[in-house]
Task: structure prediction
Amino acid sequence: MSNAKLISGISLLSLLLIIAITGPEISKAMFPNVNPLEQGAYRQYEPPSIQHPLGTDAGGLDAFALLLNSIWPSMLIGLLAGVIATILGVIVGFTAGYIGKNVDTALRIFTDMVLVFPVLPLFLILGTYLAHWDLFKLSLLLGVFGWPFTARVIRAQVLSLRERPYIDLVKLSGENTFEIIFLELLPGLLPYVGFSLAMGTVGAMFTEAGLQLIGLGAQNLSTLGAMIGHGFSRGVISLGMYGQIVAPVGILILLFLSLYLIDMGLEEVFNPRLRTKIDVK
Amino acid sequence: MSDFLVVQNITQVFGTRKPTFAVDDVSFRIPERASIVNLVGESGSGKSTIARIILGLSKPKSGDVYYKGTSIFTRNAEWQRQFRCEVQAVFQDPYSAYNPFYKIERILNISIRKFKLVNNPSEAKARIEESLRAVDLRPDEILGKYPHQLSGGQRQRVMLARVHLIRPRLIIADEPVSMVDAGMRATVLNILMEFQAQYNISSLFITHDLSTARYLGGEIIILYQGRIVERGETIQVTSKPLHPYAQLLISSIPIPDPDKRWRETLQFAPEVKSSQSQNRERCLYAERCPHVMEVCWKERPPLQTSPGKESSWHVACHLYSGNLKGSSLES
Amino acid sequence: MEVLLGNLSRMQVARIGTEQIVAYYRQLFGLDRPFYIQYLLFFRNVFLRGLDFGPSFMAYPDTARELIFHQLPWTLGLFTSAMLISWLLGTVVGVFMGWLRRHKLTTLVTGMMVLLQATPNYLFGLLLIIYVGYKLQWLPAYGPYDSGLPPAFTWVFIHSLLLHMVLPMLSLVLVLGAGWAISMRSLMISVLGEDYLLYAKARGLMPFAILKDYAFRNAMLPQLAALAITLGTTLTGTYIIEVIFHVPGLGSLFILALGFRDYNVLQGIVIFSIFAVLTASLIIDLILPLLDPRIRGFNE
Amino acid sequence: MTTILQIRDLSVGLTGRSSIIQVLSNVDLEVDAGEILGVVGESGCGKSTLVVAILNLLELPQIFQTGEVIFISSDGKPRNLLKLTGDTLRQFRWRQMAYIPQGSMNALNPVLRVRKQMIETLTQHGMADREADEQIRLALQMVHLNQNVLDLYSHELSGGMRQRVIIATAISMHPAILIADEPTTALDVVTQRLILQELARICRELGITIILVSHDMGVMAQTADRLAVMYAGRIVEIGTTNEVFKSSLHPYTQELIASIPNQSGEHVEGLAGEAPGPWNYPPGCRFHPRCPFVMEICRQQVPPSVEQRPSHWVSCHLFGKEESSNE
Result:
């Protein structure tokens, strides 16, 4: 099972997870007496220094502490939205692929419509209500708009797997539809489900950042997106404190990299033919 | 009904814009006594479509298939389970007949479990090993392996072992030897014949290769563009075919013997793009038939006994319909 | 200024909440009629009266259509040029990445491209603003052109305009282009494995002819089909880029209108976006059969 | 008979991540001018690799390991094809050596009309357009195809028509050798017979040598003058078609012919065991695990190729030089 991509991906992800979970503790340790996340804890826009590695933001919060505390909410939103998008996508993709005929055409048109439809305007309209939503409602919303990508991938795969002779052979052996779906088709889909979960998670985090960037994200949540959004809107760049934007963007990209590497690794591991020997025809 | 599988006027059409008749009003029976029926035709002649219909995997546009008098598409679950026990299949492509995710013996275990072939689980392993040996595979070489770790020949014989486990009354073998090495071909055919002799399991053997059909003997049904053109005893039909297409087909088999080379060189019949090509009520072979007559373009030749031949020998060609007694083609 | 003044007064009126004035405005904007009537009227105006989205609440006497048309050129310019340049650039780069897939360099470039195509264009835009705009000061990173210049066809204005457009275009084109390059590379690799490639080489055709007529022409078809699907997401990306770079396109207008709950403008922009996306994919669906005889099929 | 092609000790390997797996091992083969040489073997025995190697079309991960392919043109000048590179190799192709791929659906470019694919083959070898048109018209006549096929696309042709277009393209530059790799596998029996007879007739007329590769013994019996039998990457027997069918020497050839379900319908025994893939070729003679006459020497040493009868070669320890021929 030793696969370079998989190992490097998992190690990167676990590193990020550790930072995310222990973030709040680290920030407490760094700032023993005062709560760095309280409004007005420090002077506004302190330039980066040893004490404030990323300087302070408009609200006088220490940017580095804020960063440490916002990785976990971002990942949570991403994961929840990714899971929701993948579940919806698998259900839609599966029903379209497996049942086929008119159900398939109807679902396919619906999926393409949602995919082609510029989602952001809709987000923008909902954005105003997003301001005081909690984490779960936001993830639900991000998830609900993430499923077309997964649906397309799963549907194509189910269509091709459904035609394979081993499905007929299993039908002739008396397996009912339920068993065919979960025991025969699902294993073949796992790499694709994994891929869409990874892309869904990362996609949701990026979208959340995009919303924050144009000032429409959830105000009461401290996420990486929020940091980027507030930083940008309050002109942190012109004050020279780039770190407050580059750091969260960097972490988002690292998250993507880790999930992408894991997925590439799983792809090779899952495909039994690649595991053993070269098939010379 | 004495015959236990009856295919009645099945027709299957694919495509809506330009409908293509994959199967066009085909009927035949498979007798009660263990026998081998060869269903022969080129790719696109509809033989695999017929196989899928008989197995109940796809519904025909019209016509029906009866098993022991009941239509195989009835909803009754118990009857379907019984039908599955008695009619099984062997597929063409050994490389895609197994789910790559599971070990090879899983399909055998499913069959045992679903058809309740053993009364206690411990017997299952013994039964599987017995069936593997019946198709001369060594259990220790096969069990525990993934499908891609076995050769094409081994995988094909595992499918036959599955049939040996279930002991059906009829196997639908859809080109089981076409993707297997030449050396292995005879082994698979011998197994099918053994099943017929020892366990009186009938086989509907589907192939495009006439020499394998002739080796299996039994009866033969020759298809052309979804229609039966000739049917009868394999040995008789393949030695002196009546239908012009069957004659050309059988004379074109590349016999593996340098002394028996093709006598005359064939000329490419000009691809006649006649206006008639859309009209279905005619002999479909009319465009390329050297003996084509007026009637061939107008009426569809019925499948009937040709004068002076046994009752089971049928041919669908106007040369043999009643009005032309003893035509030159008899020689 | 007149636009800003206009909506300020309305906001004060709403806050003071004198009934008659609010009622007056509601009646003026036709908001007093039942919901479904408004809806039907809206679509009648849009389709029958030449895209009349109704009056803009925030910039009253101006209609929503005027506002949209005023800002449209920016989005149209940015979106269409970004789409075309990134697709052409990406496809050409992808062709060579596929043709020279054995080289060490290509695998390195591919790896980088994978990372680039995954970062959303607005985050990449941010990085550009920070490093190229502020740190290196090479390119302006704010606004469509130097704020002092009056819009005119003078070289000075155009020069400043182009200079300001470089970074927004770059953030769109590089990210999208990387995506196209990767998809073209995998299409090329699958086509290069086809039988007709081997047959072409065996016939001793010129390498360039093989690349052009055999590899590229076949790999390009699915690449063109994919263009239609990504139109929606690209348009969304363009909106955010406009906001970040303060380019007065439909994206910025959308945010403004959102702040003032200006439904007519919002609906106008959404409909416009859908029109743009559908017409573009229609054009692509018309071009495809011309290039791919298998779809054309009329001479069967 | 003057030899036109000499393949000497040709070995081709497949570069895996860590090791190189040999797919083709020390192939020695001579092709006489004007004959139809059949190369027969089960799938996976390396015959297609041999074709691609002769045409010098090997691409990574396949690489040449040893050996040379000597082409003797009509003026008697020998040239090692493996040494040709770049444009000289390109020029050589089709002028001297043509190729017929499997009759599969995508042998022709799906987006180009037949005319362009045929004409560009000639014009890119320096032929003027007018003369190219003429050559194509003649070639199409020889394969009984009328001219309007030129305006069609590959998906509009039937299997038989597509193969005839490919044959016409192949003979349009009157090459010295034509290599056909399983030309009729995807075709029905009747079209197969037409194509094989057509191919043999045209090449006899134009004096073109054919190397016909197939797994079908029937096709070989009907078409080939001489036969080379391949097993697991090696040539095990070479002889005239009659000798190989009637009095074959190598145990594998005998078993192969004996296991064909032939006409008379009596019982036939299949070949036990499995043909090894390149990653598990056994040492010594690669047929020894399945050979009924296996001896100790077979397990260690690769049998040399011995001319047991005039122009009838076999590589099997039963026929070592000093051995008195038993059996």
About this structure: The longest helix of chain B spans residues 182-199. The first strand of chain B starts at residue 5 and ends at 14. Chain B touches chain D through 42 residues (CB under 8 Å). DSSP finds eleven helices and twelve strands in chain B.
